[in-house]
Amino acid sequence: MNDWKSLPSLRGCRIEGKDAIAFCQSQLTGDVPAWPAERWQVTAWCSPKGRVRIIMVAARHENHVEIIIPEAQWSVLSEMQRFTIGRDVRFGPACQVSGCQDSNAQSGTLRQDPSRALRLEDTEATAGSVPETDWLTRWQRADLCLPLPWLDERSSDRFLPQALGLEENEGLSYRKGCYPGQEIVARVHYLGTPPQQLLAVRAELSQGAWPASVSPDSVEIEASDADSTPIHCLSALVDEGRWMGLVVAPRVIEAGQRVVVRAGSEALVAEMARPETLCYHHPQTGS
Length: 287
Fold this sequence. Notes:
Elements: E1 4-6, E2 10-16, H1 20-27, E3 40-46, E4 52-60, E5 65-70, H2 74-81, E6 90-91, E7 96-101, E8 109-110, E9 113-121, H3 133-145, H4 182-191, E10 196-204, E11 219-222, E12 232-239, E13 242-250, E14 258-263, E15 266-273
Antiparallel strand pairs: 1-7, 2-5, 2-6, 3-4, 4-5, 7-9, 8-9, 10-13, 10-15, 11-14, 12-13, 14-15
């Protein structure tokens, strides 16, 4: 039996109507009809300039598409709805979201992490139970490993999809037709190199004091031999005596490189890494 827990930082909805799948194909970076049915896939909605406005997970069903985004970005979704004019497309009401770890579900699992499942809750009565702190930390760490680089108002509309790891987790297709920003995204892919990349950062907390709760927007990360492009922290957590997170870094930064992470008056020496090395029991985690 699967143990479902509520994920209060997320909200979801159903995109319905006979044009729902075609509409999502015309708006999202992923190749929606090619996705396995009823499996959650990381994808994105971009601005006309090719910058990612929303990172989401979406699941294609026979006659509709379900999407899940951060609650903090729910208002941005209304801008996507403007493109439904002239189409048989309806955005359903906001739903709570529940998640399950160590899932044995046959559908509703994450495509890149089938041990986890997600579902939309139509009523309070069916919502998952309140998650324990350890359970939620484990879920959020799995998001870092996937990687699933959730955005908020400070990181929305800033980065190309390549800089958010969407090539690696199949959230970006170069074979499909147009979507907002597609021409710019494709030009970078075929004619250049993305100036930024998604990496992980991790530090041992045994080095000294560190604030108990540090929001990503209060963190500064410095690399002495990097160019002037800053390193942006998207999300972070503390687990097993380590501080770890996802960052958008200049292409010149490499996994294994040392950086300094500052939060107020405190500082840590940290190491850049590939996101998958943050996973539990990965050879490079030491856990």
